[in-house]
Amino acid sequence: MSAKVVKRIDPRRVILQMVDGSLIQGKVNAYRFDNAIERVSDIFTRVTDPFVVVFDATMGDKTGLILSINKRNISWVSHEFDQRQ
User: Fold this and answer.
1) Which bin fits 10, alpha (ψ -120 to 50), beta or left (φ > 0)?
2) CATH of the domain at 39
3) How many CB atoms sit inside 10 A of residue 1's CB?
4) Would the CA dihedral through 7, 26, 28, 19 be positive or negative?
5) By Cβ atoms counted within 10 A, which residue in 11, 22, 23, 26 is the most buried?
6) In a domain? residue 26
């Protein structure tokens, strides 16, 4: 018997301020198989994984990045609200 993997994505735009002062803009996936994520803050408080993946990210003059960021290196997070959401 084989397992069927269903990939689902619920992208949310965020801005991250890192402890070194740098800013990262990008998207995080708010969909999780193991628990319901309703808010961006849940990704950083309820999900126990110490890393968060930020995709379609911009850091300085670099764009289109996929970053795996240790949550301990984040000072604050701002959710960019999209009028279509």
Assistant:
1) beta
2) 2.30.30.100
3) 2
4) positive
5) 26
6) yes
Strand runs labelled E in 19-80: 23-29, 51-59, 62-70, 74-79
Residue 4 covered by a domain: no
pTM for the model: 0.80
Within-domain flag for 55: yes
* Whether 54 contacts 27, CB under 8 Å: yes
Give, for all 85 residues of the chain, the pLDDT tens digit.
565 554 788 899 999 999 999 999 999 998 876 666 678 888 888 888 999 999 999 999 999 999 999 999 999 999 976 644 4
Whether residue 64 lies inside any domain: the answer is yes
